[in-house]
Design a protein that fits this description.
The complex is a heterodimer of chains A (114) and B (111).
Chain A (H helix, E strand, L loop, with lengths): L4 E3 L2 E4 L5 E6 L6 E8 L3 E9 L2 E5 L6 E5 L5 E5 L8 E8 L9 E2 L3 E5 L1
Parallel strand pairs in A: 2-11
Antiparallel strand pairs in A: 1-3, 3-8, 4-5, 4-9, 5-6, 7-8, 9-10, 9-11
Chain B lengths: L2 E4 L4 E4 L4 E3 L1 E4 L5 E7 L5 E7 L5 E4 L2 E4 L9 E3 L8 E8 L5 E3 L3 E6 L1
The chains are: A mainly beta (114), B mainly beta (111).
Chain lengths: 114, 111
């Protein structure tokens, strides 16, 4: 158990809909990272937060947004869903301020868009 | 920009065979290097790491040495087991705490 909790584990929805994925980082970790894993594109970095503030943005679509709340949990919002958004979405957390830290991953949320 | 390139798979080996998965990186400064493993249906788990040149990370019989002169961090194991079947990811963390992952290498070990 990594200590990172993601919900829901599985989600099936239709094109055009909107979903919210939730992540609770390890206790005390200030940084949250979101990744998308699809069969043909490997692990793609979406966005990073540190203590409530956005720190870095990767290949995140404009239809996607995220935020980190004061209690450090994070949500990834996916809207106007397309078939190609079907993927595993991982959240990872890292202790703050340590150059030698590593990422701890949740088990992922599997999104299927029909 | 920073990046990681790792050997493409899939790789299929017989039990007790030797494993090498190549990984090279591009980064400014002195990144930390990692190998993560993903078992079927699970998230990524840290396998080993190295934070400076010539460091050797090791865990569960796997080893990797941080080679700055060749910008490499190859994963090795002398004798693989069926339970090692998984996808392996090489990654780096730069000085800005940003992580870059390779595309993953799928390993299947057959009895």
């Amino acid at each position: 158990d990594s200590g990172v909790t993601q919900t829901p584990k599985h989600l099936i929805t239709a094109t055009g809909q909107r979903v919210t994925l939730r992540c609770s980082p390890r206790s005390g970790d200030l940084s949250v990272y979101w990744y998308q894993q699809s069969l043909d594109q490997g692990l793609q970095f979406l966005i990073q937060y540190y203590n409530g503030e956005e720190r870095a943005k990767g290949n995140i679509l404009e239809r996607f947004s995220a935020q980190q709340f004061p209690d450090l949990h994070s949500e990834l919002n996916l809207s106007s869903l397309e078939l190609g958004d079907s993927a595993l979405y991982f959240c990872a957390s890292k202790s703050g301020g340590s150059h030698t830290g590593e990422l701890f991953f949740g088990e992922g949320s599997r999104l299927t868009v029909l | 920009g920073d990046s990681v390139t790792q050997m493409e798979g899939p790789v299929t080996l017989s039990e007790e065979a030797c494993l090498t998965i190549n990984c090279t990186y591009t980064a400014t400064g002195y990144p930390s290097l990692f190998w993560y493993v993903q078992y079927p249906g699970e998230g990524l788990q840290l396998l080993l790491k190295a934070t400076k040149a010539d460091d050797k990370g090791s865990n569960k019989g796997f080893e990797a040495t941080y080679r700055k002169e060749t910008t490499s961090f190859h994963l090795e194991k002398g004798s693989v087991q069926v339970s090692d079947s998984a996808v392996y990811f090489c990654a780096l963390m730069n000085t800005g705490n940003q992580f870059y992952f390779g595309t993953g290498t799928s390993l299947t070990v057959i009895p």
